[in-house]
Amino acid sequence: MRKAIVYGLLIFCSLLFIAPLFWALTTALKSQTELYLFPPKWFPSVWKFGNFAEAWSVQPFNLFLKNTVIVTALATFGQVLSCALVAYGFARFVFKGRDFLFLVVLATMMIPWEVTMIPQYMEFNYLGWINTLKPLIVPSFFGSAYFIFLLRQFIMTIPREMDEAATIDGASKLGIFVRIIVPLMGPSLILVAVFQMLSCWNDYLGPLIFLNDQSKYTLTLGLSQFKGMYGVDMQSIMAITCLISIPPLAVFFFAQRFIVGGLAGTGIKG
Q: What are the transmembrane regions (predicted)?
């Protein structure tokens, strides 16, 4: 009886999370006359699968997809590379002021992005980067405090004896990092890559601030083009939302076991 109650609660909670996604999918497949019926219909009378292709062709979403892929790929690569190097330095190198610098890095997590938004815009405007993809990519190459903390915690679980053995064999610090630390950091690096990918793919405020030309728009900005002054094309919004949700969902499902492993590994030793 207890197990049945637990499974019943889990199924009920799952339905609560699935319901909005299911509603978005069925709304994308409805005709215009069925969108605002009351009481609402969960299932359309005629399944209009052509709505997806029609919504995709209304705006240049092929170009938006290309821009989003470029930003996501480069930003994810920069985040993984920079955070892994900084975390390795904090976890393995001993130097004066190391702990203080690490506290300063952690303290930056308490500063919301809305506070630094205007200074960043002024800086990127001075550099001539406004209306380019650089403001969405370059900052990722300077790391994230949260990801640095996660990777540092994982590196500290790796025995130092492995570093010492590699040093005796003639390996340099960089060689130890590339040949020993990075292969062992696989789950944590995948965790960082997935989180960064989801953040870049779903980012709306950043592109909205730094991009002006439609040729530079990402998918999230392209989605907002269906909202006009006199109405909202709800059918197209739901159709595009379903389409652009497929890559993040696929990445999450395929990397789920690595995410769990990466989070477990970062909490073993503090």
A: 69-88, 100-116, 136-155, 176-198, 236-255
Q: What is the pLDDT of residue 230?
A: 57
Q: What is the pLDDT of residue 265?
A: 53
Q: How far is CA 53 from CA 27, 56, 67, 225, 236, in A?
A: 15, 5, 20, 16, 10
Residues in the chain: 270
The pLDDT, as a whole number, for residue 228 is 66
- The packing angle between helices 186-201 and 256-265, to 10°, is 120
User: Which two tokens mark 226?
Assistant: 């269906």
Instruction: Kindly give the residue spans of alpha helices, DSSP state H, lying in 93-204.
Output: 98-107, 113-127, 134-137, 145-155, 160-168, 173-176, 182-184, 186-201
In angstroms, the Cα distances linking 226 to 44, 66, 198, 239, 242 are 22, 19, 23, 11, 15
- Do 29 and 49 contact (CB within 8 A), yes or no? yes
- Both structure tokens of 203: 């980012």
Torsion sign over Cα 251, 252, 258, 259:
positive
Give all domains of the chain, ordered by start, each with its CATH number: 1-48 (no CATH), 58-265 (1.10.3720.10)
Give the pLDDT confidence of 145-160 residue by residue, as tens digits.
999 998 998 888 888 8
The model carries a pTM of 0.83
The gap between the terminal CA atoms of the chain, to the nearest Å, is: 40
Degrees, nearest 5: CA angle 5-11-12: 90
